[in-house]
Structure formats: structure tokens, C-alpha cells
Specification:
The structure is a homodimer of 230-residue chains. The first copy, chain A, has 7 helices and 6 strands, in the order βαβααβαβαββαα. Chain A has 230 residues and is of the alpha/beta class. In chain A, strands 1, 2, 3, 4, 5 and 6 form a 6-stranded parallel β-sheet that branches. In chain A, strand 3, helix 4 and strand 4 form a beta-alpha-beta unit. The longest helix of chain A is centred in the last third of the chain and has 16 residues. Chains A and B meet through helix 4, helix 5 and helix 7 of A and helix 4, helix 5 and helix 7 of B. Chains A, B: It holds the Pfam family Flavodoxin_2.
Chain lengths: 230, 230
Amino acid sequence: PPGRKVLIVYAHQEPKSLNGSLKRVAVEELSKQGCSVTVSDLYAMQFEPRATRNDIVGCLHNSEEFNYGVETWEAYKRGGLSSDLIEEQKKVQEADLLIFQFPLYWFSMPAIMKGWMDRVLVQGFAHEFPNCYDSGLLKNKLALFSFTTGGSREMYAKGGISGDIRYLLWPMQHGIMHFCGVRVLAPHICFAPEYVSEEKRKEMLIAWAQRLKTLWKEEPINCSPEWYFK
Amino acid sequence: PPGRKVLIVYAHQEPKSLNGSLKRVAVEELSKQGCSVTVSDLYAMQFEPRATRNDIVGCLHNSEEFNYGVETWEAYKRGGLSSDLIEEQKKVQEADLLIFQFPLYWFSMPAIMKGWMDRVLVQGFAHEFPNCYDSGLLKNKLALFSFTTGGSREMYAKGGISGDIRYLLWPMQHGIMHFCGVRVLAPHICFAPEYVSEEKRKEMLIAWAQRLKTLWKEEPINCSPEWYFK
């Protein structure tokens, strides 16, 4: 609906890829609805995935023994995080909905996107014990993981060789988003687009656009072990 | 035992950290046994986690539309991967045992280590459909995930707020290592070392050294959904 803000965190090297098209479809459809859409195109930004001392501007809290979690927490509080992190945090802060668009790499997100999670969602900003899970600091936001797979739907079925696809959603949806208080919408999965016809890939894009039309009416999933492991 | 080769893939910024000590203990104990031990110290190497066109030397197989999986597969076959990847692959090829030593970041490994998985374990080298899982190309090797957590053992208990720690091992142990044919030893987990006494942390180091003494007699876990989700 008009006024809603969406951040798409996008990790694919090739604009012509299905991931690139899925991202474009989301920008178009959500903009048409009157949403304001921002894209963090991680490869294009050459986003830094490594969590290092460079993320803290100026002196360290403890220069004797470097602790990334403590240092970024302290730096956040005094406004001393590196500018690329501050920029991403602003985008997150403003967003009502976060869409993560990526190809599944090794049952998870590509390293460049994992680095976005590791570096952007610092303590003090996204969580601050005991403010985690339902009381995480990013509550009142929604997240949606939209990804493509190499393996087929059958491989990712319960009893399939790769196990139920929901098993691998646990660390991303529960461990990251729910931990920060974000409510999670059902994932959007395009299985094995490389092994289907151009026709089928077009249907995948249409299905995504279709889903986005009624996205704001969706209820978040119940992000507890039952949803994942039954 | 003498002659066995071990590769430790290590991801911590601070040598004085518990992860740094766990790595050192492993190097010492395994060397004492007569093993030959190699360490890939990812932060010290400034290891590149991003999967990009730079990983392919020379011309692309398809320069119209970049597909990382296809391009690295083709590059592997013609010896055209970037030199940092060839070097890591040599270390993996020679190793009988891979130890991954890291602090848990967001229910998973730090991005720099995920990038090692994304970039080193390319098709043709580590797997080549249908040679995956029990017939993956790295069969006859062992892997062990050794990590520290922020959360306590209670949080990671079945029914705990963060769920059974085994839930989050699925993508790493089954999705990556088992997929490549590697048999997986039980993980080694140090819970919440930042919140215990110096005394307790020393006990953690001793326990790790102790386990390593009889490591070669251990049976791999049965890496199937039952082990993870009961």
C-alpha cells in the first residue's frame, strides 16, 4: 500500500539471471502499489562481507584483545561504525519489509549476503540482550527470503536426499530474522530454474508478481520449531 | 597417527581469543601425534569471500550471461581458477581431516568462512552430479566443526529459545560436507565462553586437547535427518 517502505537485499552477479529478474519484478510491482523501494545490490556495491577491525572508526574499546561483537556494539552506541554499515542500518530502520533475493549456495545464502547479516545487524541496533526474538529491536518489520535452488523440489522434499527445504530455513529465518524481532513471511522458492524451460521461468516471474499483489495481507509464519521440523 | 594430514580452516580476527587458543591446541596436539597440520587463517590471509568473475582466469565460457557455478566448473576443468582457490583446493585434496574452527555468527559460520565454502568447493572438484552425498568427490575424508557460541547450552537445548543446536548444524554438516562425500565427526562446541571464568575456559582447552588424543578412533555420525531432528 502507498507509503510502505521495502528494502530488497539482492545478491546475484548477473542482472540477466532469474534472480535479477525476480528483483526487477519486485521493484516494479511494489512501486506500482505505491511502496517506496530501495535495493542493496551487494555485488554491484562490492559489499564487504568480512567482519574486521575496519568496521570501527577510531579507537577500540579494548585494543588488547579484539572482540568483534563487543567492539561493534560499543561503536554503534557512539556512532562510530564504518559508513557503509551506517548506511545499511538506515535502510533497515526505515523499511517495513525486508526482501532477501539470492541463489541458494550450500544450503544457505551466498557469503556476500551472510556478511551483510554479520556486519549490519549489530548488537544495540538489531538486538540487545534480553531484547531478542519476540522483543528484538527490529520488531514491527517483516522479512521474506526469496531464492532459487540448484536442486529440484523432489530433492528438497521431506524424505528427499537433501531433506525438507524448511530444515535449512531455520538458521536464516529463526536464527537471524526472528532473533532480531522481525516477523517472517513464507519463503518464496524457485526450484531449479536452470533445468526448466524459458516458458517455465517466465511462469516463475509471473507467480512472484502475483504473490506480491496480496503480500501485505499475508500473515507471518509461526517461526517456531514446529513450522520447520514438524 | 603419523602421516595423517589435517587442514584447519580458521576464522577469528584475534589470536588471543578462545578460538585462537583452540586452533593452537589442535596444531600442537595433532603435530605431537605425528600428523602434518596446515592452517588456513582466513582473516590473516584476507581471504576473499565474494564469488565473482575474478575467480576465473581468462575468458568466460559464456560472457553473455555470467553463471558462477557453470563458470567455475568449466574453469576448474581447464585449470583456470584463480590461484588462491587452486591453493586451497590442494590443501583440501591432501587432507585426511578438515577442522573448521570459528565463532558461531548468526546460527552459522562467519561470512569469510562461508566464502571459503562457496568458492573452494566447486563442481568438478568437490562434487559433480550425480556424484554427491555418499559418492561426493571428497569421500574418504573427515570433517569436524569446532566452534564457540554466544548463547548458553540451555538456550541451545531442545525446547530452549534457540532450539536444539543440532538444528543449525544441518546446512553445514549435511548440506556442505556430506554433499561433498565427507564423513562428519561429532561437532566440538564451547558454549558461551565469554560468560564463564578464565578457569572454565582453560578446561575447555584441555577438553579439546583430550578429545583430539583419541579422535582417529571416533566413528563418524550418521549424517541423516534422524541425527539432527530426531
